[in-house]
Each structure stands twice: as structure tokens, then as C-alpha cells.
Amino acid sequence: MKTKTAKAVPKKALIIEDEGDLCLLINILLDGKGMEVEHVQSLAKAEEFLQQEKPSLVLLDNRLPDGFGIDFIGHIKSQHPAAKVIMISGVDAAASDVAIENGADVFLKKPFTKAELYKSVNELLA
């Protein structure tokens, strides 16, 4: 009788970002880390996703077509307290403090480097 080797379940990441190029880049970088990555472009779509799935990691842009990511952090944390949130913003450097106060685990200012992204993900999911 053969024994089945337990396969590691990949960690799930949700990218909430409306810039297609940046989303694709983050997706490629995280996929290279063995993560299962999903992408939505609005808070409404993020809400639908979060009702069905339990991501380990959420990368959240601040300025989205239907609102501000910074206001959505508390909602993510209330539904999925174990989820780690990386807030991403290029415009609002002052948003860093508010994002952290609202429950974000890390704040990355655009443009960020691959090394900064990897460091944040590795620290949060270690």
C-alpha cells in the first residue's frame, strides 16, 4: 500500500489593486514564492471574495474606484483576524500611520522594490 505524502497547501493571497501592470507584477512575484494569488480591482469585488475565501495575505491599494483601502482594513480584520494586510499607496505618505492604526501589518509606499515586498511577505507569513 502506498502512503500519500502530505502536500503543503499554498498560502492564499488577495491583491486588491486597480492598476493592471502593478497587479501583474505583484502576482508574478508572489506566484514565484509558491502562493496561490487572486486579484480584484475594487472593494466590492474584494468583499465578494472575502465571503468565499480566507486569504493569509491581503495586499491592499489605498485609492480604488469605489473607495479607500485604508477604510477597508478594519473590515478585512473583523472577518479574517489572522489575515496579514499590506497597505500599498503611492500618493498618501501620511496614510502610513492611519493604515497601521486601522490594522495594517505593513505599509509599502509606491514605488517599492521586489526586496521590500519579499521582506514584508516573509516576515508576515513566517
Automatic annotation (TrEMBL):
The modification 4-aspartylphosphate is found at D61. Pfam families: Response_reg. InterPro entries: Bact_response_regulator, CheY-like_superfamily, Sig_transdc_resp-reg_receiver. SMART domains: REC. Keywords: Phosphoprotein. It comes from the Bacteria. SUPFAM superfamilies: CheY-like (SSF52172). Residues 12-125 form the Response regulatory domain. PROSITE patterns: RESPONSE_REGULATORY. One of its GO terms (biological process) is phosphorelay signal transduction system. This is Response regulatory domain-containing protein.
